[in-house]
UniProtKB/TrEMBL annotation, chain A:
<keyword id="KW-0812">Transmembrane</keyword>
<keyword id="KW-1133">Transmembrane helix</keyword>
<comment type="similarity">
    <text>Belongs to the binding-protein-dependent transport system permease family. CysTW subfamily.</text>
</comment>
<feature type="transmembrane region" description="Helical">
    <location>
        <begin position="12"/>
        <end position="34"/>
    </location>
</feature>
<keyword id="KW-1003">Cell membrane</keyword>
<feature type="domain" description="ABC transmembrane type-1">
    <location>
        <begin position="71"/>
        <end position="278"/>
    </location>
</feature>
<dbReference type="InterPro" id="IPR035906">
    <property type="entry name" value="MetI-like_sf"/>
</dbReference>
<feature type="transmembrane region" description="Helical">
    <location>
        <begin position="75"/>
        <end position="94"/>
    </location>
</feature>
<feature type="transmembrane region" description="Helical">
    <location>
        <begin position="149"/>
        <end position="180"/>
    </location>
</feature>
UniProtKB/TrEMBL annotation, chain B:
<dbReference type="InterPro" id="IPR003593">
    <property type="entry name" value="AAA+_ATPase"/>
</dbReference>
<keyword id="KW-0067">ATP-binding</keyword>
<protein>
    <submittedName>
        <fullName>ABC transporter ATP-binding protein</fullName>
    </submittedName>
</protein>
<dbReference type="InterPro" id="IPR008995">
    <property type="entry name" value="Mo/tungstate-bd_C_term_dom"/>
</dbReference>
<comment type="function">
    <text>Involved in beta-(1--&gt;2)glucan export. Transmembrane domains (TMD) form a pore in the inner membrane and the ATP-binding domain (NBD) is responsible for energy generation.</text>
</comment>
<dbReference type="Pfam" id="PF08402">
    <property type="entry name" value="TOBE_2"/>
</dbReference>
<feature type="domain" description="ABC transporter">
    <location>
        <begin position="4"/>
        <end position="234"/>
    </location>
</feature>
<comment type="similarity">
    <text>Belongs to the ABC transporter superfamily.</text>
</comment>
<dbReference type="Pfam" id="PF00005">
    <property type="entry name" value="ABC_tran"/>
</dbReference>
Length: 291, 346
């Protein structure tokens, strides 16, 4: 083949991806770079935004314990939500996978339900269920004798975790389900024929094989929960701020855009580091199962 | 006395009967094949022995104990699955050790038995490999070692060789037979490959549409098929329409211009079934014309157009001159080489 044709071939992928690349650069990379730059600008109550390069916003975040507490809360909520979805979602996916055709599609729809409803409507629904000491959830738990005093859900981290876990559940279930589909359909029979009981089969055969699914689901749930906005805004309210709601308030209420930009940038950087780091760990640990 | 006994076993899924009236007595150390096309119920029968399915009717006994009353995990059978169903997150040694761990075999003995099992299937040195880093043939061996290491009372093989290429399959057949002979485990093989069934088994159970067609040694089923299904499923065969004429004295069996003294019993329309390698060219017999002649190295394959329809003839390449395409020939065979069945005239 001639050198010219090869050269043209080498250029073809770039030319073909150019439209998508330009869109990507235009609507994602440029605004992102501008946000990072914005975080180094100055801001004053009366002078507004000044396009200078200072570290004031970053210093404020680093020194003021308010921000440390707020980021710690953000990640605590995300971690608890991830644990809750994993504990409930993995068995849910396993049961779903064992159901017969018609029930399977019905319950899959039920699990996907939270994604089909507007985030605001769904969270307000939770607010109604939680609503103070006379909320439906507390009444049920008390009449069932599980608790003696009402649990405060609204404006608490507990409430946020419960509501977030609800909406994040589909991501976990689908991720584990995908891992379950890769299982050899005879694998449980094989283990059984060798003398393993149901608990042993789940613990030693099924669990190790779906662990990559649980972990990749956990990464999705964690990053979405840490950057969630609507649920913390409605359930957490004004008092319990997380990174996303704080950035929103800085932008739209205080109008301190540079500080808001710094909070948003820090959240992004922290998330990217956590996700990339854990992904690398998982891939190394489960190299044999992933292949 | 029968070691493993299936007595009138049947399996229904809803209104559909998948296996019906399956009765078989397997002797200790015997190698039995369930042979039939897909959907004939052979795998279902195997799964009932394994305990993954419960029979709708009938009894399965192992050494006179009711096997169906025992949980599959306690039956102590070794099973090799078509997909091997190895545990991908465990090494070859861990896979083999799993069944022994479930039996709480002491650590030293366990290590020794795992090593011996892998060595037996020719995988010494592969202990730390993960299944996904092994070839199909190696995975198959691990699956076999895993099934045999628990010293199973019966070894069940569900189309274990169907995922291997032809050459490897032949090697594994020989090896499987040798291993089975050495350790003497009673074995049941499910297969749709008649060559595999014939080269491995002591007896073949030919199945069709959930029913047993014939039980016999490979030679019996091949040479004396009891039904058209068996004769056609096991290798190539010629079925000629013939008639037994009891009015002639002595009574004669006639197929076209070919005739022989009639066998006892039957009368009227019959099917004469004869293997292609048992037909020769002679001076008299069934009139035919050779349509195509195919050279296949050690033998010639002739496709003929005979008085009784299409016929195939196989002749050894023994250096004799063979008839050419278009030649008119006479097909003849010895009466003891054919099998004759009653034919219903439609």
């Amino acid at each position: 083949m001639s050198g010219l044709a090869e050269e043209r071939n080498a250029r073809a992928p770039w030319a073909l991806t150019a439209p998508a690349l330009m869109l990507f650069v235009g609507v994602l990379l440029v605004p992102l770079a501008m946000t990072v730059m914005l975080s180094f600008h100055d801001w004053g109550q009366y002078k507004g935004i000044e396009p200078v390069f200072i570290l004031k916003n970053w210093q404020e975040i680093a020194t003021d314990s308010y921000y440390a507490e707020m980021f710690w809360r953000t990640f605590r909520i995300a971690i608890l939500t991830t644990l809750l979805t994993a504990l409930l979602g993995a068995p849910e996916a396993y049961i779903l996978n064992r159901m017969s055709g018609r029930w399977k599609s019905f319950f899959l729809l039920v699990i996907l339900g939270p994604l089909l409803i507007s985030v605001v409507a769904r969270t307000l629904g939770w607010a109604l269920l939680f609503g103070g000491n006379n909320g439906l959830v507390n009444k049920l738990l008390m009449s069932a004798g599980v608790i003696r005093f009402p649990i405060p859900f609204m404006f608490t981290e507990t409430g946020m975790v419960v509501a977030l876990a609800h909406v994040m559940m589909p991501f976990m279930v689908l991720s584990v389900w995908a891992a379950l589909q890769r299982l050899d359909p005879q694998i449980e029979n094989a283990a059984m024929s060798l003398g393993a009981g149901p608990v042993t089969i789940i613990r030693r055969i099924i669990m190790p094989q779906i662990m990559p699914g649980v972990l990749s689901g956990a990464i999705i749930v964690f990053s979405l929960s840490a950057s969630a906005f609507a649920t913390p805004a409605i359930i957490g309210g004004r008092r319990l701020k997380v990174a996303a709601t704080l950035a929103y308030d800085e932008f739209l209420n205080t109008l301190n855009w540079p500080l808001g930009a710094a909070v948003a940038t820090l959240l992004l950087v922290a998330l990217v580091l956590i996700v990339v780091g854990s992904n690398a760990l998982i891939e190394r640990r489960y190299a044999e199962v992933f292949r | 006395m029968a070691y493993l006994e299936l007595d009138g076993v049947a399996k229904q899924f809803g209104a559909q009967t998948v296996v019906d009236d399956f009765s078989l007595a397997v002797g200790k150390g015997e190698f039995i094949s369930f042979l039939g096309p897909s959907g004939c119920g052979k795998t279902t029968t195997l799964q009932m022995i394994a305990g993954f399915l419960d029979p709708t009717r009938g009894a399965i006994r192992l050494e006179d104990k009711d096997l169906t009353a025992i949980h599959p995990a306690k039956r102590g059978l070794g099973i090799v699955f078509q997909s091997y169903a190895l545990f991908p997150h465990m090494t070859a040694a861990e896979n083999v050790a799993f069944g022994l761990e479930m039996r709480n075999v002491p650590r030293n003995e366990l290590a020794e038995r795992v090593r011996a099992a892998l060595a037996m299937v020719g995988l010494a040195g592969y202990e730390e490999r993960h299944p996904r880093r092994m070839s199909g043939g190696q995975q198959q061996r691990v699956a076999l070692a895993r099934a045999l290491v628990i010293k199973p009372s019966v070894l069940l093989l569900d189309e274990p060789l169907s995922n291997l290429d032809a050459k490897l399959r032949e090697e594994m057949q020989i090896e499987l037979r040798q291993i089975q002979r050495t350790i003497g485990t009673t074995t049941i093989l499910v297969t749709h490959d008649q060559n595999e069934a014939m080269s491995l088994s002591d007896r073949i159970v030919v199945m069709s549409q959930g029913k047993i067609e014939q039980i016999g040694t490979p030679q019996e089923t091949y040479e004396k098929p009891v039904s058209a299904f068996v004769s056609q499923f096991l290798g190539k065969t010629n079925d000629f329409a013939g008639t037994i004429d009891r009015t002639a004295i002595p009574a004669r069996l006639v197929a076209g211009s070919w005739s022989a003294p009639a066998p006892a019993g039957l009368s009227g329309p019959v099917t004469v079934s004869i293997r292609p390698e048992r037909i020769g060219f002679g001076d008299e017999g069934l009139g035919a014309k050779i349509v195509t002649r195919i050279f296949q190295g050690n033998h010639w394959l002739f496709q003929c157009d005979s008085e009784c329809g299409p016929a195939i003839v196989i002749r050894q390449n023994d250096g004799e001159r063979q008839p050419a395409e278009g030649d008119a020939v006479r097909l003849t065979w010895r009466p003891e080489d054919m099998s004759v069945r009653a034919r219903t005239v439609t």
